[in-house]
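Duplicate of earlier report; histidine kinase input re-posted below.
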Amino acid sequence: MIYNLLENAIKYNRPGGTASVTVKKENGEVLLAVADTGIGIPKAEQSRIFERFYRVDKSHNEAVEGTGLGLAIVKHGVALHEGRIRLKSGPQGSTFTLRFPAL
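Output:
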């Protein structure tokens, strides 16, 4: 899951952009956030990015290879671990936050 999110953060980033991973424990949960300074995901498409084979508008990713399975796999993996995933995205980049029950 983390590998896929980091791979996307790098693939869809701007030249010279950054990607980061933050992990912390909060209110009985473990939070893992992967953030980038990339192109962002258009608001109209954010609700679909976890669907299998879905890829954001081709004008945003013409040169980027992929099948559209990665985020669907991440969402499934998070659910298997009784977690949740949240996306915050805008023109300055995206942050995917995963929340899992702390053991």
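The longest strand covers residues 93-101.

Merging into the original ticket.
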